[in-house]
């Protein structure tokens, strides 16, 4: 099923015409309404009338997270506050949060986009949708809620926390869809198992997961434990929240809502476009947002985009699952490594649970990396000698792939902290 075939299966030539028309109107709008953009465009020597085709987007300056921080809280809004009906915010780990605003029309657009994502993942009006994203300044709860309501599903806004009650309600209400982060879904599955819950006997059939990376292995684990089919969806507060891109049932990339967002993939070092289909940093320009438009917003998320036709009939381009973020990159004794590389090694090894934590510290002048990994109960209860040999084997495999020495510590199942939001995989204790 496609929620809005007129746009989701649009002829790509027509799409480009629509994008250009919207881009031209947007650039004019922000130039006149947002002093920040006027200043940046003037500095770059570009006027709204210079945007004659889509390629001209390259003439516009990028927007980065710090630009949004510097204008905290409402400095980037393109409409007066009386037109703003909602604000959300992204916490970030340091400094001031980023605040975004929505007009009534933006809220309407947003639910259209999350409706698309939900339907692409297999949801429909008959579904009972258990919303286990947080409601609040985080965009996940309210954003997905509106889309599911719009398609006519019965939404149960449980929010996060109290996992046992979450499972009880899931059972009693006969939820057919779970909407959450993949780490929280895995936690729900594990708590369910320990409560003796038989997910196979429950009506739950789909998972709409997003807001953080979910490797294929982790997806399989959740699907297996909960007896569901799960899809991945992507978004970020600065662009709108969830609803930027969502996987269809072909599960081969996330369809980007290109009628509302113009997508570029750039080389994070040079800022130039990468060749089509190559990996780079994904950059978004909102084409229809009123209160908080962004121009060439650098997400720091690394992925690749393909325009190849998809089996589902949508013509919207697909982004591959996010591989990592440019700011995830750890520099260990001069070597660049991404947490997803640890994961790719770990998840190939039998007996490893999908819970791990990377702890980086500095001893004297040396960086020290410790990797805590949960192993299956069966393994953990085995012989010490075997456990130690297993640790050395993992260290060896990591060394081959990452080129650094990692100190692996196997830990008992269920000892690493669980979360109802996004998992924290890296703890960097270095004072860099
Ligand atoms: O996480 C919005 C969202 C909510 C998306 C619910 C999907 C579902 P932020 O909190 O601003 O917004 O975080 C945005 O999270 O730049 C990515 O690094 C990461 N992220 C979001 N979705 C995915 C995903 C929401 N499906 C940041 N896969 C983004 C990997 C994701 N990373």
UniProtKB/TrEMBL annotation:
Pathway(s): Aromatic compound metabolism; phenylacetate degradation
GO biological process per UniProt: phenylacetate catabolic process
Catalytic activity annotation: 2-phenylacetate + ATP + CoA = phenylacetyl-CoA + AMP + diphosphate
Keyword match Ligase: yes
E.C. designation(s): 6.2.1.30
Keywords noted in UniProt: Ligase, Nucleotide-binding
InterPro entries, A to Z: Adenylate-forming_Reductase, AMP-bd_C_sf, AMP-dep_Lig_C, AMP-dep_synth/lig_dom, ANL_N_sf, PA_CoA_ligase
The protein's enzyme class: ligase
Ranges where the AMP-dependent ligase C-terminal domain occurs: 334-430
Residue stretches making up the AMP-dependent synthetase/ligase domain: 87-284
MF GO annotations: nucleotide binding; phenylacetate-CoA ligase activity
Role description: Catalyzes the activation of phenylacetic acid (PA) to phenylacetyl-CoA (PA-CoA).
Assembly description: Monomer.
Family the UniProt entry places it in: Belongs to the phenylacetyl-CoA ligase family.
Record-given protein name: Phenylacetate-coenzyme A ligase
Originating species: Candidatus Aquicultor primus
């Amino acid at each position: 099923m496609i929620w809005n075939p007129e746009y989701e299966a649009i002829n790509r030539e027509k799409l480009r015409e629509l994008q250009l028309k919207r881009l031209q109107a947007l650039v004019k709008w922000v130039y006149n309404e947002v002093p920040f953009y006027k200043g940046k465009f003037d500095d770059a020597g570009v006027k709204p009338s210079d945007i004659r085709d889509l390629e001209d987007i390259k003439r516009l300056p990028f927007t980065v997270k710090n630009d949004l921080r510097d204008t905290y809280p409402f400095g980037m809004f393109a409409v007066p506050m009386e037109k703003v009906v909602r604000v959300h915010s992204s916490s970030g780990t340091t400094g001031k949060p980023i605040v975004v605003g929505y007009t009534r029309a933006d809220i309407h657009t947003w639910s259209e986009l999350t409706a698309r994502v939900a339907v692409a993942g297999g949801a429909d009006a008959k579904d009972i949708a258990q919303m286990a994203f947080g409601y609040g300044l985080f965009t996940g709860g309210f954003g997905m809620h509106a889309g599911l309501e719009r398609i006519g599903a019965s939404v149960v806004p449980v929010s996060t926390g109290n996992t046992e009650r979450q499972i009880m309600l899931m059972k009693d209400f006969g939820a057919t869809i779970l909407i959450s982060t993949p780490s929280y879904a895995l936690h729900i599955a594990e708590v369910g198992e320990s409560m003796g819950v038989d997910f196979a006997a429950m009506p739950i059939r789909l998972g709409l997961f997003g807001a953080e990376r979910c490797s294929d292995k982790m997806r399989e684990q959740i699907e297996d434990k909960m007896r569901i089919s799960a899809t991945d969806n992507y978004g970020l507060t600065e662009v709108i929240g969830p609803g930027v891109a969502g996987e269809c049932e072909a599960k081969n990339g996330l369809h980007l809502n290109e009628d509302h967002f113009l997508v570029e993939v750039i080389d994070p070092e040079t800022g130039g476009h990468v060749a089509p289909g190559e990996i780079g940093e994904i950059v978004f320009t909102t084409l229809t947002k009123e209160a908080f438009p962004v121009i060439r917003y650098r997400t720091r998320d690394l992925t690749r985009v393909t325009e190849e036709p998809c089996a589902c009939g949508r013509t919207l381009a697909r982004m591959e699952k996010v591989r990592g973020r440019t700011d995830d990159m750890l520099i260990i004794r001069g070597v660049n490594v991404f947490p997803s590389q640890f994961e790719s090694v770990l998840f190939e090894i039998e007996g490893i649970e999908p819970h791990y934590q990377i702890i980086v510290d500095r001893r004297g002048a040396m960086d020290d990396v410790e990797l805590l990994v949960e192993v299956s109960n069966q393994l953990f209860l085995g012989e010490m000698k075997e456990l130690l040999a297993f640790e050395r084997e993992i260290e060896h495999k990591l060394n081959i792939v990452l080129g650094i020495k990692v100190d692996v510590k196997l830990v008992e199942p269920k000892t690493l902290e669980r979360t109802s939001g996004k998992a924290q995989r890296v703890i960097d204790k270095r004072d860099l």
